[in-house]
Design a protein that fits this description.
With about 170 residues, the protein is mainly alpha-helical. It contains six helices and no strands. Helix 4 crosses helix 5. The radius of gyration is 26 Å and the shape is elongated. The two termini are about 40 Å apart.
Length: about 170
Amino acid sequence: MGFSLARTGIIPALMLVTMVGCNSDVASTELTPDLLEDQAELSRISNRLEPAERALFNKYVMNRNVGGRIFPGQAAIMPDGSDPRSVAEAIELMRAREQRSDEVEALVAERTRLIEPIDQELQQMRASGMNDNESVAHHNELVDKMNGLIKDYETKIEELRAKPLVLQQPSQR
């Protein structure tokens, strides 16, 4: 009975070690042009990854095989302009792109939050009519303020998009 308990504890542990080993092996798989055209092999590689990494790898494959053709210039490439050399690099590239996208979305949300009250005030002024010079001057000040915010945030967003992506090595996570 002791032997079967030891065996039941050892087998799951060995399975876990094997699964982790398989996952790290698949992450080091070299991404060659031939491999990127082999949908069956890409599927096998994807299925051996953890769910979060699988999703990122699948996004890379879709970007590489479909998105890059539909939207030239939007292909997922490494900061040095090359294609990822391995599955791990492709995953880290897509992780960095998602993080950058989240940063851009945060700037857009912040810009919207700052502009909405100005826009609402402008709409109220226009609805109530602007019959005197003071109202017109205030309206123009608000328009200038809103346009300045929009320009500032567009500049921030473009600067962020232009910055090179920073990729972590898989061991740094």
